[in-house]
Amino acid sequence: MGLNQTPSSERIHIGIYGKRNAGKSSVINAITGQNLAIVSEVKGTTTDPVLKAMELLPLGPVVVIDTPGLDDEGELGALRVQKAYQMLNKTDIAILVVDGSVGMTEEDLKILNRIKEKSIPYLIVMNKADLLDGPGTAIGKAVWVSAKTGEGIQELKEKIGTCVEKQGAEKKIVSDLLEPLDFVVLVVPIDSSAPKGRLILPQQQTIRDILDGGAVPIVVKDTELESALVKLGQKPKLVITDSQAFGKVSKMVPADVPLTSFSILMARYKGDLKTVVKGAEALDQLQSGDCVLISEGCTHHRQCEDIGTVKIPRWLKEHSEKNFQVEFTSGTEFPDDLSKYKVIIHCGGCMLNEREMKYRLKCAEDAGIPITNYGTAIAHMKGILKRSIQPFEKEIIGD
Ligand SMILES: Nc1nc2c(ncn2[C@@H]2O[C@H](COP(=O)(O)OP(=O)(O)O)[C@@H](O)[C@H]2O)c(=O)[nH]1
Ligand code: SF4
Ligand SMILES: [Mg+2]
Q1: Whose CB among 173, 217, 302, 306 lies 3.0–4.6 Å from 209's, allowing a Cys bridge?
Q2: Probe residue for ligand 1, chosen from 27, 39, 98 as the CB with the greatest number of ligand atoms within 8 Å
Q3: Ligand 3 centroid – CA 331 distance (Å)
Q4: How far is the CA of 105 from the centre of ligand 3 (A)?
Q5: Cα torsion through 344, 6, 64, 166, rounded to 10
Q6: Which stretches of the chain are DSSP H helices?
Q7: End-to-end CA distance of the chain, in Å?
Q8: How deeply is 396 buried, as exposed, middle or buried, from its count of CB atoms within 10 A (0-12, 13-18, 19+)?
Q9: Strand, coil or helix: 36
Q10: Longest CA pairwise span in the chain (Å)
Q11: What is the Å distance from ligand 3's center to 127 Cα?
């Protein structure tokens, strides 16, 4: 990812679904005006979902997901179909591409039902209009196009644009709580786990959101915090700290100044603060022999280093004084069967989009397993959760 690019997790994900040879890859190429996807007469050429970040004019930054065909055969084929279905959990807008010369089939209807169940906004594209003798018959809200001649592609792009706009009524990280010119102090410890020469994504995004709200972010290291607060000469509206420094920082920030952490903000932004706060209570009920799932959203967890693999298991053992088992997953793998776990501790999910994070929370909820996240769990174990969620108390108590 280039430094000036919108991170993938913040882009609208457009998933393209359909049978083999319906023209999914061709439609992607037609709407992007580039040869990004491999088009082939050979069925099953796209064998794994392919995600590409791109600027889709005039829509802006998106991620387009090209998926394998939904009618793939054999054992390997079934696995590919499963992967295509899994991509629905990342998809903000689904496009079902149907071979218009064949018409809608069982596979098309099956995925359409899943798309509807998941409340994903969708469009149906009847492709290969050029193969018909006359104009295609109107089927609900389907758009007739030909990826080959370009017919209908402009109309399709406009429809995608309308879907994207509807999703644009964005949530804010913190600026919804601020007034213009409010001072917000951000505490960013620079220790060996901090990446060289830059800030991590949640910090960058929070600063940007405060700026967008017309408020004033003041960024300090934990070592300068006390002096900075004195020098500021007035109480800040809010202090936001890295959760690992919460204990130390909470002693320096006067009790009447609201204090929270980046991970609490991200939990509120990406998922459901109420769920993860409730999930943290389950950490007090652990018994010896219980199994705890620790799950991270990316595999190259440079930013999270050993928090999930070493630190949280250690703190949790100290906290519960019980000898439980820990299982660890990372990246796109998230177990289908959660029933063996007593509690799930997920990372902040900064590399996951909101839909995927919500999906994981929903899986846990459906299985009746409490789920919390790193920041919330750490705050709970250190006895500072109450203070860090106090700025959002209304949201957590209310529905
Ligand atoms: N006539 C016609 N052929 C098309 C059209 N779109 C795709 N094709 C052909 O259909 C085949 C499968 O296309 P592809 O994009 O690879 O389909 P995918 O498997 O769904 O990704 C290729 O031979 C394409 O050239 C179209 O609009 N009209
Ligand atoms: S919070 Fe999760 S997604 Fe973000 S860097 Fe850490 S492990 Fe990866
Ligand atoms: Mg393809």
Answers
A1: 173
A2: 39
A3: 24
A4: 18
A5: 90
A6: 24-32, 74-86, 106-117, 153-167, 201-212, 222-232, 246-252, 262-270, 273-281, 312-320, 354-367, 374-381, 385-389, 393-397
A7: 37
A8: middle
A9: coil
A10: 78
A11: 13
**Amino acid at residue number 178:** L
Residue 359 CB neighbours (<10 A): 19
Nearest CA to ligand 1 atom 26: 128
Phi, psi angle pair for 28, to nearest 5°: -60, -45
Query: 106 CA to middle of ligand 3, Å?
Result: 19
In order of 62, 119, 165, 236, the CA distances from 158 in angstroms are: 15, 21, 10, 45
- Say what the pLDDT of residue 139 is: 72
At 201, is the pLDDT very low, low, confident or very high (cuts 50, 70, 90)?
confident
Residue nearest to atom 8 of ligand 2 (CA): 298
**278 closest CA partner among 201, 371, 359, 352:** 371
User: Atom of ligand 1 at shortest distance to CA of 19?
Assistant: 20
Q: Measured in whole angstroms, how far is the alpha carbon of residue 261 from the centre of its chain?
A: 19
Torsion, Cα of 359, 45, 21, 124 (10° steps): 20
> Is the Cβ atom of 69 under 6 angstroms away from ligand 1?
yes
DSSP one-letter string for 269-290: HHS-HHHHHHHHHGGGG--TT-
Q: Give the mean pLDDT of 11-32.
A: 93
- Rounded to 5°, the CA angle 311-315-320 comes to 150
CA angle (289 as vertex; 286, 294 as ends), nearest 5 = 65
Do strands 12-18 and 50-56 pair parallel, antiparallel, or not at all (unpaired)?
A: unpaired
User: Is the per-residue pLDDT at 350 higher than 90?
Assistant: no
| pLDDT > 50? residue 399 | no
Q: How many CA atoms lie within 13 A of 146 on its CB side?
A: 12
Token digits for 30? Answer: 């037609």
Query: Comparing 218 with 4, which gets the higher pLDDT?
Result: 218
Confidence grade of residue 397 (pLDDT, cut at 50, 70, 90): low
Say if residue 3's pLDDT is above 50.
Answer: no
> What is the number of the ligand closest to the CA of 305?
2
Query: What does the radius of gyration of the chain's CA atoms come to, in whole angstroms?
Result: 24
| pLDDT tens readout for residues 53-93 | 888 776 778 899 999 898 988 888 888 989 899 899 889 99
